[in-house]
Specification:
The complex is a heterodimer. Chain A is an alpha+beta fold. Chain A contains two helices and 24 strands. Chain A has one domain: TolB, C-terminal domain (Neuraminidase). In chain A, the strands form six sheets. Chain A has a six-stranded mixed sheet, with no helix packed on it. Chain A has a four-stranded antiparallel sheet with strand order 4-3-2-24, with no helix packed on it. A four-stranded antiparallel sheet of chain A has the order 8-9-10-11, with no helix packed on it. By secondary structure, chain B is an all-alpha fold. Chain B has two domains: 86 residues; 81 residues, Orthogonal Bundle (Arc Repressor Mutant, subunit A), CATH 1.10.10.10. In chain B, 69% of the residues lie in helices and 0% in strands. In chain B, α1 packs antiparallel against α2, α1 packs parallel to α4 and α2 packs across α4. The radius of gyration of chain B is 18 Å and the shape is globular. The relative contact order of chain B is 0.11. The chains are: A alpha+beta, B mainly alpha.
Chain lengths: 408, 175
């Protein structure tokens, strides 16, 4: 009978869940405690505010009732005169200074292997992968791929110029922060004048010309959530390239503004104070961002990521030395959660330190704080350490930093 | 910095975290989601620690956890990390019985409420009445959900219902 077996089988399933440090140990306990007490204080404040409002309502009602008894006409209801109550303020967390990040609980992911980013790795063409979890590239270095099992590969594919010359061995393809397709099976890299698609399951490359014969450098290549189109930019401005048939068409948005993510989400653009939803077959719909009493986006920074109707992106805030990673509900335009990352002294954090690198899963946003890869859970405000990112090669001290791409 | 009550809260979590995590793992079938579920329960427990800390903190934490699980609005599909990095059930089954692997796969096909009822009844060893009280549903609902869940398990994993097969638990019991 199945009922008789269930207790033992269920116990067997979780017999390996035996490490109390798995969830982060003491730092996590402290984080839960702190978050709980903050939530408690907020509730008390809300309760007090509600009591004050309720008391005020009772007083007003009493006055109106007295007037009604006196035969006076009821006062007109002027909604514009009603007090503005920020009923939908974002839940805001403040990140510790970088020096304090070593005390954060650790979130176990395969990305820990990024700390030991190798200089080279076995070629992808001889050792293909079922999918890729992350990719990294030092300035002018090879594109290195991190497999879900923690092993590394190197893109060694070759591809052709428009004239038919093989250049894969001499031209270094450029990795972008959103080069990995939603299914983790294809890389979209840029080379002068073209997007190169590399199938990690075979190591084979396909070149999709974008700018004709001009062969100029392209902007970053970013996957759309449908997994069938890549956004990039060239001489003719931003374009959308079909990875199915290679058709190139102009885009109305900038690469960084359009969101990448899992399949199932529409094309969403975050620009200025507006979300633009590009549903196929209908005109773009605009959703204005709601004003928040504390989080005031002034300028967006880096890539945009979407997960089930929630946008995550870094913003600089107006009038303060703050940058924040925010989560926005694309249906309402409301900033639901934010984590503030103060820059400048005394926290020793630079402006532009903190790019949003994607959604790890439904609960966790990946972000980079200087040399740290962090995980932020908006619902609880908890911040985790994931990996210490390597610095650029000493031979390229003046070059740009390492590019990290995560599977969306 | 932690404030009044932190020491007792920390001691409770250190002692019961593993147990809570095991229950959450059975509920969600995913280690990361399980951690989220436990963490959220701990945050809510911390909010009410002054009131429940000295009485029945574990019961309260479990109550939060199970109710949150059943009412989670967001889709709890296995995210790419869960499917690609955490070993999938088959890969995770090295050294485990076929029954266990089949059960894991079948549990994933149940509704959240069915899964919660099964875990409470057959893992936590709660009575029908206790399960109903914890989930804030009627006794009849627990019975019907339990019946539906077991029927579905028999359909999805018919070998589990075979008297010929032997569970790992029974094997261990004989050792």
């Amino acid at each position: 009978m199945i009922e008789a077996k269930l207790p033992g089988l269920l116990a067997g399933i979780v017999e390996d869940v035996d490490d109390v440090e798995e969830m982060g140990g003491t730092p996590l306990i402290r984080a839960a405690w702190t978050a709980g007490r903050v939530r408690r204080r907020r509730r008390m404040l809300v309760t007090v505010a509600a009591a004050v409002i309720a008391a005020g309502t009772v007083c007003v009602s009493a006055v109106v009732a007295v007037r009604d008894v006196g035969g006076s006409p009821p006062a007109s209801r002027d909604r514009s005169a009603a007090p503005s109550v920020p009923a939908s303020a974002a839940s805001v967390t403040t990140a510790p200074a970088p020096a304090g990040e070593s005390a954060l609980p650790v979130l176990e992911t395969p990305f820990a292997a990024l700390t030991g980013l190798p200089m080279t790795a076995p070629g992808l063409s001889t050792a293909p992968l079922p999918r890729v979890a992350a990719a990294a590239q030092r300035p002018h270095g090879p594109v290195l791929l991190l497999a879900p099992d923690g092993s590394w590969r190197q893109v060694d594919s070759t591809w052709m110029t428009a004239a038919g010359t093989t250049v894969g061995s001499t031209v270094v393809p450029v990795l972008s922060s959103r080069s990995i397709s939603p299914d983790g099976r294809t890389l979209a890299l840029t080379v002068p004048g073209a997007v190169v698609l590399v199938d990690v399951r075979t190591g084979k490359a396909r070149r999709l010309p974008v700018d004709g014969p001009t062969g100029r450098a392209l902007e970053t290549a970013s996957w759309l959530p449908d997994g069938a189109h890549v956004v990039t930019g060239g001489d003719a401005g931003t374009v959308v390239v079909s990875t199915v048939d290679g058709v190139v068409r102009p885009a109305t948005y900038l690469s960084d503004d359009v969101a990448s993510g899992h399949g199932g989400d529409p094309v969403v653009e975050l620009t200025g104070s507006t979300l633009v939803i590009h549903d196929p077959g209908s005109a773009p719909a605009q959703v204005p961002l709601r004003q928040d009493p504390r989080i005031k986006p002034d300028q967006w920074y880096g890539a945009t990521w979407i997960n089930h109707g929630r946008i995550a992106r870094t913003t600089f805030q107006a009038g303060s030395a703050e940058q924040a990673v925010v989560v926005i509900d694309t249906t309402t335009g409301r900033i639901t959660h934010a984590i503030e990352l103060t820059y400048g002294q005394p926290v020793a954090r630079s402006q532009g330190c903190c790019a949003t690198l994607g959604w790890l899963n439904d609960q966790t946003v990946l972000l980079r704080d200087g040399g740290q890869l962090l995980g932020w859970r908006p619902a609880t405000g908890t911040l985790f350490r994931i990996a210490r990112l390597p610095s650029a090669s000493s031979q390229d001290a003046d070059a740009a930093d390492i590019v990290i791409a995560m599977m969306p | 910095m932690a404030g009044d009550g932190y020491e007792s809260f920390a001691a409770f979590v250190a002692a019961r975290q593993r147990s809570l995590l095991r229950s959450a793992t059975l509920l969600t079938g995913d280690s990361h989601l399980a951690q989220d579920l436990v963490q959220e329960a701990l945050v809510k427990l911390a909010v009410r620690w002054d009131g429940v800390g000295t009485e029945h903190p574990e019961a309260y934490a479990r109550q939060i956890m199970y109710r949150d699980f059943v009412s989670w609005r967001r889709r709890m599909r296995r995210e790419w990390l869960g499917s690609a990095v955490t070993p999938p059930p088959v890969a995770d089954s090295v050294g485990h019985s076929d029954d266990r692997v089949a059960l894991e796969a079948a549990l994933a096909q149940l509704t959240r409420k069915q899964r919660a009822v099964l875990v409470l009844r057959f893992y936590e060893d709660l009575s029908v009445e206790q399960t109903a009280d914890l989930l804030r549903v009627s006794v009849g609902t627990v019975k019907s959900q339990s019946h539906a869940a077991l029927s579905r398990l028999r359909l999805l994993a018919p070998d589990l219902d075979s008297s010929a097969s032997t569970s790992a638990y029974e094997e261990a019991s004989r050792d």
